[in-house]
Amino acid sequence: MLKNITEAQLKNMTLKELIALCEEAREVITKTVLNNGGHLSSNLGTVELTVALHYVFDFPEDKLIFDVGHQCYTHKLLTGRYDKFNTIRQKDGISGFPKREESLFDCYDTGHAGTSVSAALGIAKARDIKGEKFNVIALIGDGSFNNGLIYEAFNSLRLLNTNVLLILNDNGMSIAPTVGSMHEYLEILSEDMQHKSKVDRHAKIFERFGFGYDGVYDGNDLEVMINKLTEVRERIKKESVILHVLTKKGKGYSFCEDDPESTHGIAKNNQPVQFNEYSQVLGKTLTRLAAKNDRIVAVTAAMTSSLGLSEFFEKYPDRSVDVGICEEHATILCASMATEGMKPYYAVYSTFLQRSFDEIVIDICEQNLPVTLCIDRAGVSGADGETHQGVFDLSFLSFIPNLTIAVPKDLNEFEKMIEFSEGFNAPLAIRYPREGKRFFGACEKIACGKWEKLAEGDGKYAILACGERAVTQAFAAAEELKAQGVSVTIINARFVKPLDTVMLGGLQEKFILTVEDNMLAGGFGSVVNGYFIGGNKILKNFAYADEFIPQGSVSELMQERNLSGRAITEFIKSNENR
Amino acid sequence: MLKNITEAQLKNMTLKELIALCEEAREVITKTVLNNGGHLSSNLGTVELTVALHYVFDFPEDKLIFDVGHQCYTHKLLTGRYDKFNTIRQKDGISGFPKREESLFDCYDTGHAGTSVSAALGIAKARDIKGEKFNVIALIGDGSFNNGLIYEAFNSLRLLNTNVLLILNDNGMSIAPTVGSMHEYLEILSEDMQHKSKVDRHAKIFERFGFGYDGVYDGNDLEVMINKLTEVRERIKKESVILHVLTKKGKGYSFCEDDPESTHGIAKNNQPVQFNEYSQVLGKTLTRLAAKNDRIVAVTAAMTSSLGLSEFFEKYPDRSVDVGICEEHATILCASMATEGMKPYYAVYSTFLQRSFDEIVIDICEQNLPVTLCIDRAGVSGADGETHQGVFDLSFLSFIPNLTIAVPKDLNEFEKMIEFSEGFNAPLAIRYPREGKRFFGACEKIACGKWEKLAEGDGKYAILACGERAVTQAFAAAEELKAQGVSVTIINARFVKPLDTVMLGGLQEKFILTVEDNMLAGGFGSVVNGYFIGGNKILKNFAYADEFIPQGSVSELMQERNLSGRAITEFIKSNENR
User: Fold this and answer.
1) Cα-based torsion angle of the residue sequence A314, A316, A317, A319 in order, rounded to the nearest 10 degrees
2) What is the predicted ipTM?
3) d(C-alpha B558, C-alpha B560), whole Å
4) Is B296 part of the contact surface with chain A (CB cutoff 8 Å)?
5) CA-derived radius of gyration, chain A
6) B526 contacts A342? CB cut-off 8 A
7) Which of A156, A363, A527 lies closest to B115 in CB terms?
8) Contact with chain A for residue B104, Cβ under 8 A
9) Strand partners, B118
10) Which one-letter DSSP state was computed for residue A167?
11) Touching check for A426 and chain B: CB below 8 Å?
């Protein structure tokens, strides 16, 4: 039934048919995600809710915004993307997130947490200004509900004087179990719902902000969902409403129901989630150091396990903080703990560190505090696409005064850098990709701003490679070139700030090539270019051009953008007669 | 009494003496601020509160964090800075904000809103880890209380399992009157206090997050404040407490009490607040365009009047939104309104735009939406110092795909740029300083990425000047050089992204000088350097080096950092024999 289904057909189905439709959607999602990778349990939990929304509301006239977007697969299946669904998260396929470019039914792109309520209010406000009448719905999980943006949006509801429907999909988890006082409050409300009591009394918080409140205890019961949404559709003509829906993450697939955390994200071909070797080294090293140093504290924002910190959190609960999806708050906690002599490590994905930009500048760097930013999933991150690529961090960090930026060439060196960080008494950022190898041999002791020469060439070309992916490509090029009688110098540029000006100043090579898994503008290459301004070197930068990078595998994305041994080799060969 | 007062002396004073001390502090603050400029009414409102805090608590063992810091003057007077107080906000003088470098009594630097609760929690958590016992107090105004960081901090209170005292200084204003649902809620609580009724019932929101709640109706009554703080000091041994204190902004100085908004910030020598010519042009132009274009919307975050938008807000209330100090939310409101065909303008100070970095990348630019960022107070901003300099914006914007960045050379051109923006269907940032002149004559029509040549030289030197301050210095240099027989080309580089590669490619000059009121790293000069990589030009960048810039007048700060006609002249003269 799902194939080529239209909104009109769906609305004409009987309840029995709709339930069968849900089962079919669940099956397609499970099969596809086990094959392609993607977000499984979050999508399984919201099948009935999504079908009910499409049954009750009129999309695309009505607008549906998915917070983060980990719950949008059923919506994609219902809105003309059944045939392409097997391409989800593949290169040139459909996105795993809502994308305006992909469908009229996707009205707002998401990817980072907490934006949906603000977006719903903006769309509703525009509707009111234009004198139109459609409904605006934000669907948000309880994990995102911790983010400060929610409060900012709530605070302006009455100001904006507009009506939206906010569906709070509460499964008690973000990726990890949800934490925090708001979560505890939602649990109280859930219990009230179960006992059909006191809900009105406890729901006052939302009412204070101008929302009506209603709840659905079994959000996986399609009939109940349809009835409640039908009722609420009338109510939001007069006021904004929060509909608190309890769903079961991973519903219908026992493997997920039993272990929703590790089935939140699934890797390709039913393999366990990809290894994250750098994260593991972070966790092991910090745990080891913390045994002897009681000032070490680890802070995360709802990503403890993916960041490799589970063991640390188990061993040192008093020195571990997971604040939920609150990246700004996490950053300030680190800065302020550092003022009291603690040694805080904030571990975070590169893309989510963007939320902390102001706090990195003002709270950490202006105060020159010894916080270490452990920036995971740096560089292109693969199948999540545009909203999750970690390719901006060197650009948004490299101009901040007082900040030192380190980039390890392999896991050995990463471990040494963490050891180095322990005694480093100023702001430090270490950025690294997901996958890693103990590849380039034992590494000398880390000293701030000191690079190392990994290969000595014949004096014409020097490749300055920043990070493991870049060093790997530099070696790939060197090998190919060697067969052709060209020998290149390879330098492990393990600090982006400060540059190793001693080594730079000593380079005799005419051609200086930089390689980095980051944007060209403002990145490592741009800093090196600045150093050589006015000299007579020939400079060539391998980095990402000025565009958002779509989904694909890491190697596909890098190859296509000439961040490859092949591209380096070709550049050098084309210059052999110069 | 104030001069050289110690904590011990203050604690031995009688109530009468303490009241006299308050009056003296009020007098010194008023006199100094009317002379030096600074934050007047916010500081006058919190004199008693601050004296009471110093009477009851033991600083610097106990820690006091000022949110934003507009309320710290009395604290500075009480903690060894009486003698230097006349240097406040002057070059090389004491700061108008809390600064750890300045005093042991300043435990956390602030400047941007909403950070104090997170910082208090971090400091308290560090205290607990270390097994120490001091008290941690955050003092926050009701304006900052709108910021999402507050919610993130509240949400983690129970998680962190620590105790702090949060003093909510409620005067009903931030700079402008406070807006939003939280403010309305605080008003309900204030009424309860007045009638000594129902407070417990209404204060449930705070209790949900794990705070005890108490209130003081007259926060300017010293005796009441002392008694309440004494009581609360015991209570926070067992739980975190929000103490909601009502104060009168501008208390004790009728000029301020009557008009707390325009006396929030005072310019030097009792002049009215400095002119902000660019803001005025923004307001006038947008108001004019909005008369014919009903899609134009203006959004601000608690700065409407300072951004020149009062008239717009009065004329078009339905298309005006001030969300309070919620920069991230404001940014998403703009992006989402744009998805519905609106033409949103988000006006904001450069330094506060830092809070929106992630939303600029993900919500505006990834979706390629026609939002215009009107970035006011760009470049060094003067007396507020390190936390308020607008010198990072070109660096954190210039690598974002899909974004166009424009920088006007004068007010005429700014007006033309706003007109240009109306028909520009993609993300656009326009950055400008506070002060401006209609100086450089009529300006040609703006075309995206097109620069203009303002002066043709004798072919050796080209100055690429970005923005009015830079163009002004370029002309100053040109004039001086002319007297010495050197004639330079001056180019108005009014787009930082995209560059005018046609004009750049046609430059015959050997020496290319860039001038900008921004960091060197990642800024305009760095982008130009990237263009010329591999060529044979001699490049010289005039921009800010890698350090936080302290307070001073705009011209002092620029001169000292060689952003001046003088420095340009000297560079050129030193190259006359090359």
Assistant:
1) -140
2) 0.96
3) 6
4) no
5) 26
6) no
7) A363
8) no
9) none
10) E
11) no
Concerning whether A355 is annotated as a catalytic residue, the answer is yes
Tell me, yes or no, if A561 is annotated catalytic.
Answer: no
d(CA B81, CA B102): 9
The candidate with the shortest Cα–Cα distance to A388, out of A554, A235, A236, A227, is A554
Contact criterion met (CB < 8 Å) for B123 and A340: yes
Structural contact between residues A395 and A519, judged by C-beta atoms closer than 8 angstroms:
yes
- Separation CA A477–CA A466 (nearest Å): 15
A519 vs A434: CA distance, rounded Å = 18
Please tell me if residue B531 touches chain A, with a CB cutoff of 8 Å.
Answer: no
Distance CA A284, CA A282 (A): 6
Query: Would you write out chain A's pLDDT as a tens digit for each of its 578 residues?
Result: 899 999 999 999 999 999 999 999 999 999 999 988 888 888 999 999 999 999 999 999 999 999 999 999 999 999 999 999 999 999 999 999 999 999 999 999 999 999 999 999 999 999 999 999 999 999 999 999 999 999 999 999 999 999 999 999 998 766 667 778 888 888 888 887 877 655 556 667 888 889 999 999 999 999 999 999 999 999 999 999 999 999 988 887 777 677 777 777 776 665 545 689 999 999 999 999 999 999 999 999 999 999 999 999 999 999 999 999 999 999 999 999 999 999 999 999 999 999 999 999 999 999 999 999 999 999 999 999 999 999 999 999 999 999 999 999 999 999 999 999 999 999 999 999 999 987 777 677 899 999 999 999 999 999 999 999 999 999 999 999 999 999 999 999 999 999 999 999 999 999 999 999 999 999 999 999 999 988 889 999 999 999 999 999 999 999 999 999 999 999 999 998 87
From the CB of residue B269, how many other CB atoms can be counted at a distance below 10 Å?
A: 9
Q: How far is B297 from chain A (nearest CA, A)?
A: 9
A299 min Cα distance to partner chain B (Å) = 11
User: Does the model's pTM come out above 0.90?
Assistant: yes
CB contact under 8 A, A333 and B125: yes
Answer for the pair B360, B397: CB distance below 8 angstroms, yes or no: yes
**Could you tell me the CA-to-CA distances from B104 to B11, B59, B384, B478 in Å, in that order?**
19, 9, 20, 48
**B-chain residues within 8 Å CB-CB of A396?**
357, 396, 399
Q: Phi, psi at residue B265, to the nearest 5°?
A: -115, 135
Calculate the CA dihedral of residues A309, A310, A315, A321 and round it to 10 degrees. Answer: 70
Task: Please tell me whether residue A334 adopts helix, strand or coil conformation.
Answer: helix
The sign of the dihedral angle between the CA atoms of B106, B109, B111, B113 is negative
Q: For B425-441, b where at least 16 C-beta lie within 10 A, e where not — what string?
A: eebbbbbbbbebeeebe
Q: Quote the crossing angle between the two packed helices B468-483 and B565-574, to the nearest 10°.
A: 50
Q: Is A119 part of the contact surface with chain B (CB cutoff 8 Å)?
A: yes
Q: Which of residues 183-202 of A touch B (CB under 8 A)?
A: 184-185
Q: What is the pLDDT of residues B66-95, one digit of tens each?
A: 999 999 999 999 999 999 999 999 999 999
Residues in A closer than 8 angstroms to B519, CB to CB, are 399
Name residues whose C-beta falls within 8 Å of residue B31's C-beta, 6 or more positions apart in sequence.
none
Which amino acid is it at A313? F
* DSSP labels, B237-267: TTSEEEEEEE--TTTT-HHHHH-TTTTSEE-
